[in-house]
Amino acid sequence: MEEILIISNYYPPEKGAAANRIEQLALKLNQNKYNVTVVCPLGNYPKGELFPEYKGKFSVTEMRQDINVKRLWIYPSNSKNFIIRIFSILSFSVCLFFFLLLKKTPKKVIVQSPPLLLSFISVFILSFKSKKIILNVSDLWPLAAIELGAMKANSLSHKVSCFLERFIYRKSTLILGQSKEIIDHVKSIVPEKSCFLYRNFPDHKTSEFTLSSTSDEPIKIFYAGLLGVAQGVFELCKQLKLNNLNIELHIFGDGAEKKQIEDFIKNNSEKKIIFHGMMERNQLLNKLTTFDIALVPLKARIYGSVPSKIFEYGSLGFPVLYFGGGEGEDIVKENNMGWIAPVGDYEALNKELELISELPKENFSEMKTDLFQNSKTSFNLDKQIADLLSKKVF
What we know:
With 394 residues, this protein is α/β, with parallel strands linked by helices. The chain is built from 14 helices and 14 strands. Strands 3-4-2-1-5-6-7-8 form an eight-stranded mixed sheet, with helices on both faces. Strands 11-10-9-12-13-14 form a six-stranded parallel sheet, with helices on both faces. Strand 3 and strand 4 form a beta hairpin. The longest helix is centred in the N-terminal third of the chain and has 21 residues. It starts with a strand and ends with a helix.
């Protein structure tokens, strides 16, 4: 079996789209006769503290579904303090630097970006070792940081980040982009570089449709995922007007805004918002089988970003209420997946909710069935991997 290394800042048992994305890539490569090793930090995300099984350890090597996972030390933190966050990133970066410098690595390496610093260190060392570097770009940094207000344009940190970004694009052998916008952006910097579209399609390993609708309950909309700044779920809770609608909003997840959301719901019970906290994946999917619509929000339009939840919930059969702008809107429209409100326009969002509230519950059953069937072709991970293998990307 040919060996390949994946370098990522996230990997299960950590939660979230980033960890799931890298695990699916690793598993699919393994199924296609690659001996896959993943290098990542000790598990700590999203709470910013080491999981019990990794506490007191400097490094851990383990097997997860035939994937060799090497976990290196990190000072975990989800603090809003900039200095603490930088120290956390640097702690893993230093460990990764020496690992790549001193350890024997395969000829082919997939490097996940962002974080920019980790991808820079990886590409820097691997380029000296003459490795085939496959850069997997899931978000455009520092551009996304500017749009989110996390970084000021033309500041020192912005200029340094732009240097790191240009470096990893130039030194990589080829680049995978999670959206067409990412590929367009990369091509504007390195027009000669080979780039390939690699969507974050899920692999639910199910051929049976399991969703249903209950006519004697309100229309149940849910958000499940990270409760962070980029998603803007706390602001969403404040702006939604569900009081007189036949709709409930259910929230599942964890993250920086969790406490604010919990406090808000306690003090505003009339809002018809229910918070469930974090659930294991299988438990969550079982809970959602009678829910009706998946809410996919972003606080602001982020160029290059396509939330993986569009593909994930579409593959399960859930209609989508999309509130994130950008390329995601085109995907929802092209695949007849549900409803769209312009990002940041809460008045338009509430109007869409009014229209949804008037729909008979039978409509959702039909939509779910159609989406589940169509996604087998539209969001097919095996087909996507086979296409990239035929083009000798890996």
